[in-house]
């Protein structure tokens, strides 16, 4: 009778023990390689965050929603071959035209963004240039 209750309990504690060991091992391994909580994205690793722009919250919001994916938090990510916005030679007006009409893998935004949104985000990305 007693055995009936002891056995499942022993099995359970054995399982728990193994799980604990596995967890300890994996924590130890990641500590040893020095990569415990390291962010996987390179721009995050350098602590770069998307610039604030109190005068242009719309531009920032549009950038987060539509552009960050390829251009990144510093405009330099280059996802899908995206141009580096930090060294872009385009003026604000020229950038607005690229956003409106698209270029290579970057699609046209004229059907998705209003004229105001395009102007705002074109203004916002000028912030990347000062760095
Ligand atoms: C799918 C990825 C992708 C997304 C999303 C994207 N872009 Fe691009 N962007 C690119 C690519 C690719 C290029 C063109 C590279 C080339 O012509 O060699 C580019 C070029 C540009 C350029 C031209 C820069 C220059 O100096 O030539 C600007 C400005 C720009 N993007 C801004 C934006 C903005 C603003 C958004 C959001 C509304 C955005 N992009 C969204 C991929 C993307």
Radius of gyration: 25 Å
Q: Which whole number gives the mean pLDDT?
A: 80
> Which descriptor suits the 3D outline?
globular
The H-and-E topology, N to C, reads as HHHHH
Tell me about the largest β-sheet: none
Indicate the percent of residues in helices: 40-55%
State the domain count. 2
| Count of DSSP-assigned helices | 5
Segments where pLDDT lies below 50 for 5+ residues? 27-36
- In whole angstroms, the N-to-C terminal distance is 75 Å
CATH topology of the largest domain: Cytochrome Bc1 Complex, Chain D, domain 2
The CATH superfamily of the largest domain turns out to be Cytochrome c-like domain
Can you name the CATH architecture of the largest domain?
Orthogonal Bundle
Overview of this structure, please?
The chain is mainly alpha-helical and 131 residues long. The chain folds into 2 domains: 38 residues; 89 residues, Cytochrome Bc1 Complex, Chain D, domain 2. It contains 5 helices and no strands. About 8% of the residues have low confidence. Heme C binds next to helix 3 and helix 4.
Give the helix/strand layout.
Layout: H1 2-32, H2 42-45, H3 57-71, H4 92-101, H5 115-124
Helix pairs in contact: 3-5, 4-5
The structure holds heme C (HEC).
The site of heme C has 25 residues, from α3 and α4.
């Amino acid at each position: 009778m007693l055995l009936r209750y002891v056995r499942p309990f022993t099995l359970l504690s054995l399982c728990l023990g193994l799980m604990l060991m596995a967890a300890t091992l994996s924590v130890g391994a990641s500590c040893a390689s020095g990569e415990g909580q390291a962010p996987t994205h390179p721009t995050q690793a350098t602590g770069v965050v998307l610039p604030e722009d109190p005068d242009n919250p719309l531009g920032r919001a549009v950038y987060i929603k539509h552009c960050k994916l390829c251009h990144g938090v510093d405009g330099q990510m280059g996802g899908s071959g995206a141009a580096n916005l930090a060294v872009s030679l385009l003026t604000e007006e020229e950038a607005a035209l690229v956003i409106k009409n698209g270029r290579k893998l970057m699609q046209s935004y004229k059907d998705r963004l209003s004229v105001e949104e395009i102007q705002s985000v074109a203004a916002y990305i000028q912030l990347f240039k000062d760095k």
